[in-house]
Structures are given as C-alpha cells and as structure tokens.
C-alpha cells in the first residue's frame, strides 16, 4: 500500500504537466446565399435575364458551390474566395452559363471553361460517363450534359482549381494575398488579373472573411 500512497500526491502534478492538444481546425465548405449576393449583387433575382434559361440566383448558386468545395476538398477560405470571384466575373454574376461573346460552341458552365476543359471535366464525373461517351466528343453536347445538372454546372470552378492548378499556385493562393490571387489568375487560369476581376475577388475576400 505504501508505494501507492506515495504516488497519489504526484498524480495532479503529472496531469498538469501533460500537454494539452488543441482540437483540429474544422474545415469549412459552407457558403450562404447572402455571401454570394455580397460578391454578385445581381444574383438576388433573375428578373429580365439576358439569356433565356441561363440565369441563376444566389439561392441556387450557394448550395451548389458549397457542394463543389466539399466534393473537391477546397477548404481554404482564400481559395474559395478566388473560385467564387472567378465564376462571378466569368458568368456576369451567374446570369450566363454559356459563352455568348463571341459565342464559342461548347464553352461554358459558371466557370466559363473552354470546350477542351469541359471535356476533361465531364470525363472525370463517373455519373455521366455513358452520356459523355455517347456525345462522341461533340463540344456542344458535352456542355449540354454538364448544364443539365446544377451540381456540375457550378462545380467546374472547384474542379479546375484542384486538377489544373499546380501546388505552388495553390499554396500562394491560400495565403490570401493579392499576389497569390494574381498568380492564380495569370499562372493557372491564364488570363489578365485586371481591375474588373480584382473587384470581385476583393468582394469575395470580404464576404468569406479571408
């Protein structure tokens, strides 16, 4: 009994000396309609849409974008902001899902991807593999298949980031800096990080609390 008695006074000291592990940070893929409206104010409604059947509201966009972040594991708020900003700019605040200017056949989704990227994207989705095979490479048909489901229409931005951008671009983007965002636009998307795009990115950064 004596050894046990000697150890008892030490137990509180040992407990206090044990390291306390901080809980792992929870990933956040949730996006609200209010956040989308902050980034793309026109998405509050689809009154007088410029293209029949293409406009989507923030209420439609938010859950589908959130689903895409979950599907592709985009948990960085800085990356999420960049993806949403890109889609808002390219789709003119979710009012278009097809390219109208100049009207490239097969170019579209909310990320306004080129036909070649849409082909890669469609081929990566097992649920539509039969339809994609039946399209036999027809760019217009492949876009139609993607646009038939809002999940795929709004999922293209997250797919592109996670499959077409290299790790260096993503790491820089995750910093939340303008330099990281600019590198994503110019180094992966392959276009100019101009003031128009920057405005949407700044709104997205604010809305998502980056």
Defining traits:
210 residues; mainly alpha; Lysozyme; disordered N terminus
Give an account of the 3D structure.
The protein is mainly alpha-helical and 210 residues long. It has one domain (32-43, 53-208): Lysozyme, CATH 1.10.530. Helices cover 59% and strands 0% of the residues. It contains 12 helices and no strands. Helix 3 packs antiparallel against helix 12 and helix 5 (77-90) packs across helix 9. The termini are far apart. The model is unreliable at 1-26 (pLDDT under 50). Keywords: Signal. It comes from Aspergillus cristatus. Residues 1-17 form the signal peptide. This is Transglycosylase SLT domain-containing protein.
Largest sheet: none
Distance between the termini: 59 Å
> What is the oligomeric state here?
single chain
Number of domains: 1
CATH architecture level-2 label: Orthogonal Bundle
Q: Using the CA coordinates, give the radius of gyration.
A: 23 Å
Report the strand count. 0
List unreliable stretches of 5+ residues.
1-26
Strand portion, in percent?
under 5%
Give me the number of helical elements.
Answer: 12
Give the averaged pLDDT, no decimals: 90
Determine the CATH topology. Answer: Lysozyme
In the CATH scheme, the class would be: Mainly Alpha
Secondary-structure element string:
HHHHHHHHHHHH
Instruction: Tell me the helix content.
Output: 55-70%
Report the structural category. Answer: mainly alpha
Query: What is the approximate shape?
Result: globular
